[in-house]
């Protein structure tokens, strides 16, 4: 009597033995005796080779295609006699109006002429031979270009720079965004030029704008398929005027906190750390921001933010810059500065 060995499972596939079903009872069984005139029973052929699926290595991770591309997957299998091959999509039967299958003696082909995002999902191939069944799963992801960012806003402009903010697109194209591409165009030429690529934030500062020009800006979203087909454009223009240079000025505030906080300066909610126009210092709890040779575009709301592991607090100060006879006069709202500085101190005394 021959020993029964466990069947081998091919990489990427699963072999299981199906439980007997009521339908199995209807299968013809061999009878040791049969009388004259009895019909000859049909015996099931013996299984000479267990079913196996040889899933290609490239399909053992998510299979990504662009919308409109062809999907043509050839999956080899084995089994003798010839097994039955069945495909499903997310646990349901295939939509034969979009997906076609050709089963051969040793392989099965899944074909989609022009893939759409609705074709994404989990496809399972089942190879059945009697009560033995081998299965393999393939995850397909169909992607396309993202939609455009929903809006873009010119937050501020000063000197030869402009600050922009935008909102992410509603549709990412069924794929992760790689970033944003920002472009500028001056009103004289109307030509668009890229100033930043693969920007990962939803804000940026554009520098080196030419004095005397007015600029519009637009932003594209980008994923693995490329840039969005359209891009929103700023409603306002950045008019780059010749700066009137004045004297350096400084802003001060007091901070008390433990542990020692990190000090961050912002202008109109935009981080200005690292900008050579400003110099920030902190000594014995006194924070100062020096504005070097400011011009009219240096006016705005300046914020000093202190952050430590226990929390954060901030103080705002408005700076107005006015020009009188080619000279600069600074009008700092000292009452507001004094009041908010005391609030910052109290916040750190009681919050941290």
Automatic annotation (TrEMBL):
The keyword Repeat applies. Residues 148-243 form the Fibronectin type-III domain. It comes from the Eukaryota. Residues 232-316 form the Ig-like domain. PROSITE patterns: FN3 (PS50853), IG_LIKE (PS50835). Coiled coil: none annotated. Keywords: Immunoglobulin domain, Repeat. PANTHER family: MYOSIN-BINDING PROTEIN H (PTHR13817:SF49), TITIN (PTHR13817). Belongs to the immunoglobulin superfamily. MyBP family. This is Myosin-binding protein H-like. It comes from Camelus dromedarius (Dromedary).
């Amino acid at each position: 009597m021959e020993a029964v060995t466990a069947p081998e499972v091919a990489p990427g596939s699963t072999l299981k033995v199906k439980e007997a079903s009521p339908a199995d009872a209807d299968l013809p069984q061999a009878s040791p005796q049969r009388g004259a005139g009895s019909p000859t029973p049909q015996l099931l052929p013996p299984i000479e080779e267990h079913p196996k699926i040889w899933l290609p290595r490239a399909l053992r991770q998510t299979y990504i295609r662009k919308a409109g591309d062809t999907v043509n997957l050839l999956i080899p299998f084995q089994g003798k006699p010839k097994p039955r091959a069945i495909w499903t999509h997310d646990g349901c039967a295939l939509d034969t109006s979009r997906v076609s299958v050709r089963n051969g003696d040793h392989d099965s082909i899944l074909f989609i002429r022009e893939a759409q995002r609705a074709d994404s999902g989990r496809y399972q191939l089942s190879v059945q031979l009697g009560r033995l069944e081998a299965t393999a799963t393939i995850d397909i992801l169909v992607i396309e270009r993202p939609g455009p960012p929903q809006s873009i806003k010119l937050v501020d402009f000063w000197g030869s720079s402009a600050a922009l903010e935008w909102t992410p697109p509603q549709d990412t194209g069924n794929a992760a965004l790689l970033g944003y591409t920002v472009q500028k165009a001056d009103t004289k030429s109307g030509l668009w030029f890229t100033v930043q690529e693969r920007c990962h934030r939803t804000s940026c500062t554009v520098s080196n704008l030419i004095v005397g020009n007015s600029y519009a800006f637009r932003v594209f979203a980008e994923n693995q398929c490329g840039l969005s087909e359209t891009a929103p454009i700023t409603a306002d223009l950045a008019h780059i005027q010749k700066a009137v240079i004045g004297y350096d000025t400084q802003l001060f505030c007091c901070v008390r906190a433990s542990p020692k906080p990190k000090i961050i300066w912002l202008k109109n909610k935009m981080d200005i750390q690292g900008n050579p126009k400003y110099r920030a210092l902190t000594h014995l709890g006194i924070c100062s921001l020096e504005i070097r040779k400011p011009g009219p575009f240096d006016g705005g709301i300046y914020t000093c933010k202190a952050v430590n592991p226990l929390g954060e607090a901030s103080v705002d100060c408005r700076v107005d810059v006015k020009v009188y006879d080619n000279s600069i006069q600074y009008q700092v709202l000292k009452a507001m500065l004094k009041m908010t500085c005391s609030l910052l101190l109290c916040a750190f005394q009681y919050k941290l």
